[in-house]
Amino acid sequence: MHFPRVLSALLATAILPLSVLGSIQIVPGASWTTVNAPYQHIQAHGGGVLLVNGLYYLIGENKLAGSAFQSINCYSSPDLVNWSYVTKLLSVGQGHADLASGRVVERPHVVYNEATKKYVMWLHIDSSNYGEAKTGVATSDTICGGQYTYLGSTQPLGFQSRDMNLFKDTDGSAYLLTEDRVNGLRIDSLTSDYLKPVKTVFLFPEKYTYEAAAILKRGNTYFIFASDQSGWDPNDNIYSTATNLAGPWATWKLVAPAGTKTYKSQTASVIDINGTAVYMGDRWVSSNLMRSTYVWLPLTISGTTASLVPTPVLSFWSSTNPPQNNQVNWVLNQGSWSPGTTETTYEAEASANVLAAGSKSVDCSGCSGKKSIGYIGGSPNGKLTISSVSSTATTQTTIRINYTNADSAQRYATLSVNGAKYIVAFIPTGDDNTPGTASVTVRLNQGTANTFVFEAYNGGWGPNIDRVAVPVS
Ligand SMILES: *[C@@H]1O[C@H](CO)[C@@H](O)[C@H](O)[C@H]1NC(C)=O
Ligand SMILES: *[C@@H]1O[C@H](CO)[C@@H](O)[C@H](O)[C@H]1NC(C)=O
Ligand SMILES: *[C@@H]1O[C@H](CO)[C@@H](O)[C@H](O)[C@H]1NC(C)=O
Q1: Are 8 and 22 in contact (CB under 8 A)?
Q2: What CATH topology corresponds to 15-339?
């Protein structure tokens, strides 16, 4: 049942004082661990999200072991925060030369064809030096029920194509958005089965170097988003609008404040989640691509304007030191969104915490208090216990853990919250002085008696923990 928000808030207060909705949060740029095995940071880069029968499916590139093709992965979630690993949709050695190891297989995008009842995936297919510049197509009867059937690749309409995307219009027609480096960004119509391009309905002539396009339709307005070309490094992404895919398209404008480099991200996908436009970008880390994170931010759309404005203006905003995100964390409600709630932070090195079995305070110049707690896990199973964590409600809530991990691979920890165990992955941070953030959704009890214990997962070493931010409610 769907109540207006004010009424549901009243009901929650009157009838269910201990149950608060909407405290689970999207934390852009954090390590996102799946709630099932293998409990890793999500590897679905450069992809997109589809809603099928009440579950969201995230499909993207696996970059666990570098840039070359490993697999196209699928994850599912009921709420875009709690993600489960589902399966690989394409893998190395699937019997096609395009999918051999060492190849480039990037930017998978899937649309559903009502007439053929097939899920149709288009991807960027290339040689390791990006010289082939082709698009590939694969199909399946199910969104993520298993391996897709790979049909092969071509240069669409005979033109180069690299960072590409798909757009399915409200009338059921679908389009390939393709980066033709010689001539410009193209919108190509597809055949009714979505398997082949028919013709270019628009070629953006302004600049030849826009890529990674994504289209969102709002009412009768099409918004196209794209990035400039700067390799794995981010740039200030741009957008344009039209009321017809064949144009005319308005002059390109910046989607985020100049200099933020789109909050250090590149467009992968822009989708509507029950009325909230959500920008889904990739924050690529070229030195170790598995460290790349998902910068999902609420996009404010008004008329023909789309912007990733800082709303509200964040206290740490300054033009010389722009923030990493326009929201540190945010809540997707039914039909709206809100910034993350007030938080209490708990320093790992606070004297009230209990260190056991070898865990100890270590220096960390970038950490709050310049200290973190290291030697968690490992053979003595070092532990960090933070007691007296407070919450005004008994609720599921998303906490943010600031940490360092100087390894080149993920570290893991088991976090027990009042005895319930959560496995958390911590992607590398490059060194032990520059903290990153990991998010995990846990169940807290109302009151001030919640206890967090960080310890080993599978006997391995955990990260160094700097501090933990816990929503007040
Ligand atoms: C959006 O609405 C659909 C259909 O009512 C629902 O299944 C889905 O859970 C909603 N999404 C979110 C994030 O609330
Ligand atoms: C996460 O979502 C799955 C469904 O995908 C559900 O079974 C599970 O209970 C959810 N877990 C939490 C903690 O919400
Ligand atoms: C966590 O680290 C990030 C990145 O260094 C920083 O922006 C943020 O303020 C830190 N948060 C907390 C709660 O310490």
Answers
A1: no
A2: Tachylectin-2; Chain A (2.115.10)
